[in-house]
């Protein structure tokens, strides 16, 4: 998700650069090119880093705006507490949503692994029945290689799935 958001940010910078280029604003053109280069260079390999930075900035902006828009006669502490409580609520809702998405993806991964396992079992049993009749056939040897590759893929995907489940 962070990668997609970084790409969207880069697209927005490019659109602004195109718009400003038509206006011939050299200083702004230079600054936008530097921003694009910095975003691509520094955050392309780790888009989560820029996502965290932007999230923190937006959170701080919301806190400042909430403090600025509160009534003058109201106590500052009460407003800040309400802001913190609502921020915590949003954080909890965001985490719950992320967990739901992760659970859905895990379910899809498990179903995919089950389907792959069923296909492997079917092909392996078919191979065993063919192997009893003709062990030297080139077709059987080719199918055994394909089954071994399928087994390796299945094993790898299980390990990757287990690794992500334990994060």
UniProtKB/TrEMBL annotation:
The keyword Translocase does not apply. It comes from the Eukaryota. One of its GO terms (molecular function) is DNA-binding transcription factor activity. Keywords: SH2 domain. Residues 1-71 form the STAT transcription factor protein interaction domain. Pfam families: STAT_alpha, STAT_int. One of its GO terms (biological process) is signal transduction. This is STAT4 protein.
């Amino acid at each position: 998700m962070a990668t997609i958001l970084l790409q969207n940010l880069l697209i927005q910078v490019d659109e602004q650069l195109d718009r400003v280029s038509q206006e011939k604003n050299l200083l702004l053109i230079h600054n936008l090119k530097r921003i694009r280069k910095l975003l691509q260079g520094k955050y392309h390999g780790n888009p989560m880093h820029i996502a965290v930075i932007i999230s923190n900035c937006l959170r701080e902006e919301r806190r400042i705006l909430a403090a600025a828009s509160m009534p003058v006669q109201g106590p500052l502490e009460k407003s800040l507490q309400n802001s913190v409580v609502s921020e915590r609520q949003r954080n909890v809702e965001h985490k719950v949503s992320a967990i739901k998405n992760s659970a859905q993806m895990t379910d899809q991964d498990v179903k995919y692994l089950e389907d792959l396992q069923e296909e492997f079992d079917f092909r392996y049993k078919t191979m065993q029945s063919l192997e009893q009749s003709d062990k030297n056939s080139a077709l059987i040897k080719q199918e055994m290689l394909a089954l071994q590759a399928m087994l390796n893929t299945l094993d790898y995907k299980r390990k990757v799935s287990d690794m992500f489940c334990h994060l």
